[in-house]
Write a structure and sequence with these properties.
about 280 residues, alpha/beta, Leucine Aminopeptidase, subunit E, domain 1, two-stranded antiparallel sheet
Length: about 280
């Protein structure tokens, strides 16, 4: 079955099991008002009923561990969390860049296996030089440009505030991570929270009632200082929490989709995501 993320005796599994079998119990109770079971068959009937209930419970438990998609509602917005390819999602697709909007895929500034590396190599419809030019002349808001880092040896010099978005067709290129002197992506938790809050605010201004797909921001590429053990599930919970407290609201039929890479799903308990956000 793979990685066991939900224990066999998890109270949430038991609660879903009770909800699923309540109709069966009511139907059986109603049937027994009109049908009598012979005395000699009652023990066999009880055993059969216990086997059926056990089978249903095991099915619920396996389902909870194999979840690959959940739908939740957050203050009127529809949010889908699922395994998939972000490039195949409808509407806008958010791609995380560093604070410089570097575009050099050389496995130093940008890894060719990273999401923005894949975007630049396979999904950019113009030359990289044209993208660089349009980013360079784009009239960003005053508070979206931090400074010019003239001491930087490789890559671009202009530094942008985290959460700054450049819209390129159906893609939202967003400044997510800071770079140290060795060109390693690094963030503190306050910076990560600031990025998310600002990102939701910027999306609210540009989404034009289109659906928006985002990755689990920070997954696998960002070192969050002081949080060595933080995993994808923690990052996902933080994303949902900041979305809830932001003013970002998707109007039907638009929705937010958080796309999880297939290789990371074993690290995330989607049942937990669903029940926590439904108040269970």
């Amino acid at each position: 079955m793979g990685v066991v993320k939900v224990g066999f005796f998890d109270r949430r599994v038991f609660k879903i099991f009770l909800q699923g079998t309540s109709a069966l119990s009511v139907a059986l109770s109603t049937l027994l008002l009109f049908v009598s079971i012979p005395e000699e068959c009652k023990l066999h009937a009880l055993a059969a009923f216990a086997i059926v209930l056990t089978f249903i419970y095991v099915v619920v438990w396996i389902w909870a561990n194999k979840l690959r998609r959940v739908e939740i509602g957050i203050d009127g917005s529809s949010v889908t969390i699922k395994v998939g390819d972000i490039f195949k999602q409808p509407g806008f697709k958010a791609i995380a860049f560093n604070e410089y909007f570097d575009t050099q895929v050389d496995n130093s500034l940008i890894s060719e296996e990273s999401l923005n590396g894949i975007y630049l190599k396979f999904h950019l419809t113009t030359d990289v030089s044209d993208l660089d030019r349009r980013i360079d002349i784009f009239p960003f808001e005053t508070d979206e440009i931090v400074d010019e880092n003239h001491n930087r040896r490789h890559g671009k010099k202009r530094r942008h505030r985290l959460g700054t978005i450049f819209v390129n067709g159906e893609f939202l290129l967003v400044a997510m991570s800071k770079f140290d002197d060795s060109n390693r992506a690094i963030l503190t938790m306050p910076e990560y929270l600031e990025f998310l809050v600002r990102f939701w605010d910027r999306v609210n201004k540009v989404y034009a009632q289109k659906s928006v797909a985002v990755p689990v921001f920070g997954s696998g590429i960002t070192r969050i200082k002081g949080h060595k053990s933080i995993g994808d599930e923690d990052l996902l919970k933080i994303m949902l929490w900041t979305f809830r407290i932001s003013e970002m609201r998707f109007k039907y039929p638009a929705k937010l989709t958080i796309v999880i890479h297939d290789a990371k799903i074993d690290q995330i308990n989607l049942l937990d995501m669903k029940l926590l956000n439904n108040g269970v």
